[in-house]
Inverse folding.
């Protein structure tokens, strides 16, 4: 097959499994990246053919060098380009003419410094010669199954189950060195750089079928295309865990006065919600990125969320329990028969036979006996073996135990001195994750349990398929860009079955009185003006109007207040609406997110929205499962279930509303922002009391 006909995954496969590599810009100068990269390839024991390219050198690091790509005696599988930015176009053309299918461009100096023109030149050359690009502005890549350390540093000694993907070269190196030092090892390290061609989504799709990769730890500053990225996560969901650290949590530049939804839709919040929706695990720091990646690449995915803690001392057991309860991990009580049998093992009388089990002992054999017995009684899905002291032969015991029990095993080891240093690598090589503190172990275990739950649910119910984003038909309503007048906004709601109080649009006071008598008092009066999107802030709303006399008074008052607050506002008329009964207030909204497109939000209203920002996001279209999870993510969810004597709310009705809004913003992409605020929810049913729509 010609490389022109190969898929992106096939190209990545050829890069990683390259039988021959051209190192363009190889140098004998030890201070140059061309030297460092060639040195890493050779010291990494790469078994393929290496062709250093340097017009001046006859031999570099004992390997014959060639003055140009054209003079190499074969066509390499990949060219690694380390020349200055001005020389890259000529090298890329030479590689294309030679028929090399891909280039890994480490050179910097493109869009990251404002030189979009130079970056576009690379893209144009690559298209002309059908050559695929990784980079530019990267340190290279490592693929351990092929012993190919094709980056500046470090040279990795341990091959393992973890893959790191990063937009930062330094973070790539840091994660790789952590894994290598602990003998966890990696199967691949991928630096993304500017992603002019092959991007993060392409690598995820490739790795979903790669047998060496068990889990992926990613550091991202952005994604090339939001929907393509989510599609890649969807493809790998349930197959292999993906942990993501997204840089840029600040909301600076994200706020908009247009709607509450837009003002609260910080890019980081939406990004993390989208990751969770498609099975990836977002984290907030490098330590968690590594810890979760370590555990998910070694320990099997748990069948449930039951945890048994077996400790050598009480203190570390208590720390583990505190963290487990905080994260909602189940700590099952120990069955009486199990405890009775434990007592026959002649354990220390100073210990404790509850969960956590405190052995008050430092003998590996006692841990083994207790864990074997607990597995016999199916006590838990995961055992945390909590070593707080030097435990002789702990590594061998854990390796043996792993092979004999059904439950998953993780280890927390601290205070183990030389025994710990000796046994930690043994346990990692045996596929058992080891953590320096109980809390870090518990957090990683909890993440694995959540991923397991997600995988089972997706296997059973699948993703949202009611609307396929790429097949959406544009349904552009007539009208100019800007805020939609509320009477028109309400007509949109009615199309999608979204409940709104009985209402009438009026232009005069007499029409308002007639409408109120028809609807029935009490009523609400609201100004209708495209220049007054925030009606309450401008005095444009009056509630609980009980008779015609008060209606006349409030009609005049609204006009006066709006004229004072927004002098240039054109008042089109008023909305007369049936006054709604009291109930719990929510906000439901939608935006066109700049990365992911149609996105919806739900939150508790009032103080919860303005102060606590108790909101949840999902990328549309959403499934019933997504709607249910959004609601349950809210910190104030208990208020919907009847907490503190309040009435239970129609949660299923709220789920339907979220799906209706999801349909609405997907099918009508001209809707840039949508606010239903407040939505008043009752024991049965709900009402959107105000609708604000911004059109593009």
């Amino acid at each position: 097959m010609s490389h022109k006909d190969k898929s992106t995954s096939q190209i990545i496969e050829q890069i990683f499994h390259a039988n021959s590599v051209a190192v363009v810009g190889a140098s004998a100068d030890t201070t140059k990246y061309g030297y460092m990269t060639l040195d890493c390839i050779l010291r990494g024991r790469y078994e393929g053919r290496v062709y250093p390219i340097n017009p001046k050198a006859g031999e570099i690091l004992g390997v014959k060098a060639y003055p140009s790509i054209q003079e190499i005696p074969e066509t390499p599988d990949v060219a690694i380009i380390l020349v200055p930015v001005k020389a890259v176009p000529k090298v890329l053309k030479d590689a294309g003419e030679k028929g090399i299918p891909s280039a890994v461009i480490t050179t910097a100096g493109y869009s990251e410094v404002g030189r979009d023109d130079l970056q576009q030149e690379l893209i144009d050359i690559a298209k002309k010669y059908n050559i695929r690009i990784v980079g530019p502005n990267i340190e290279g890549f490592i693929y351990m199954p092929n012993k190919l350390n094709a980056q500046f540093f470090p040279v990795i000694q341990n091959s393992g189950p973890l893959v790191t993907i990063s937009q930062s070269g330094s973070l790539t190196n840091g994660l790789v060195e952590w894994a290598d030092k602990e003998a966890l090892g990696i199967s691949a390290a991928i630096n993304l750089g500017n992603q002019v061609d092959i991007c993060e989504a392409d690598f995820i799709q490739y790795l979903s079928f790669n047998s060496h990769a068990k889990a992926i730890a990613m550091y991202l500053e952005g994604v090339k295309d939001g929907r393509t990225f989510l599609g890649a996560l969807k493809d790998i969901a349930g197959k292999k865990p993906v942990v993501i650290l997204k840089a840029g949590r600040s909301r600076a530049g994200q706020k908009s006065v247009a709607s509450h939804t837009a003002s609260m839709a910080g890019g980081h919040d939406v990004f993390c919600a989208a990751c969770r929706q498609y099975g990836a695990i977002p984290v907030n720091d490098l330590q968690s990125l590594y810890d979760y990646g370590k555990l998910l690449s070694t320990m099997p995915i748990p069948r449930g969320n039951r945890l048994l803690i077996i400790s050598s001392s009480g203190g570390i057991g208590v720390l583990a329990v505190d963290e487990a309860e905080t994260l909602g991990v189940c700590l099952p009580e120990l069955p009486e028969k199990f405890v009775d049998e434990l007592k026959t093992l002649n354990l220390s009388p100073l210990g404790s036979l509850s969960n956590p089990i405190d052995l008050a002992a430092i003998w590996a054999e006692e841990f083994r006996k207790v864990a074997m017995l607990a597995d016999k009684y199916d006590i838990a899905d995961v055992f945390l073996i909590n070593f707080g002291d030097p435990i002789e032969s702990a590594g061998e015991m854990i390796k043996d135990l792993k092979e004999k029990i059904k439950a998953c095993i993780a280890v927390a080891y601290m205070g183990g001195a030389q025994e710990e240093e000796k046994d930690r690598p043994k346990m990692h090589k045996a596929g058992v994750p080891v953590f320096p503190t109980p809390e870090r172990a518990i957090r990683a275990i909890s993440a694995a349990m959540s991923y397991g739950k997600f995988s089972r649910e997706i296997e059973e119910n699948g993703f949202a398929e009611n609307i396929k984003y790429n097949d959406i038909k544009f349904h552009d309503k007539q009208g100019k860009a800007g805020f939609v007048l509320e009477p028109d906004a309400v007509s949109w709601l009615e199309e999608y079955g979204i409940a709104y109080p009985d209402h009438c649009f009026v232009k005069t006071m007499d029409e308002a009185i007639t409408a109120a008598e028809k609807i029935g008092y009490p009523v609400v009066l609201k100004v209708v003006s495209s220049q007054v999107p925030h009606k309450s802030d401008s005095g444009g709303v009056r509630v609980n109007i009980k008779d015609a006399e008060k209606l006349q008074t409030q009609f005049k008052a609204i006009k006066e207040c709006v004229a004072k607050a927004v002098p240039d506002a054109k008042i089109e008329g008023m909305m007369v609406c049936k006054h709604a009964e009291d109930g719990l207030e929510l906000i439901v909204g939608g935006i066109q997110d700049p990365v992911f497109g149609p996105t919806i939000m739900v939150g508790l209203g009032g103080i919860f929205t303005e102060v606590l920002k108790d909101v949840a996001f999902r990328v549309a279209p959403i499934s019933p499962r997504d709607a249910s999870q959004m609601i349950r993510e809210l910190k104030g969810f208990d208020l919907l279930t009847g907490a503190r004597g309040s009435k239970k709310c129609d949660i299923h009705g709220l789920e339907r509303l979220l799906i209706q809004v999801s349909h609405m913003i997907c099918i009508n992409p001209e809707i840039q922002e949508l606010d239903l605020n407040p939505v008043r929810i009752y024991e049965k049913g709900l009402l959107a009391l105000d609708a604000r729509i911004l059109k593009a």
Q: What stands out?
A: DSSP finds 22 helices and 31 strands in the chain. Residues 252-265, 466-478 have pLDDT under 50 and may be disordered. The longest helix spans residues 438-461. The chain has five domains: 1-144, 156-298, 300-461, 502-578, 584-695.
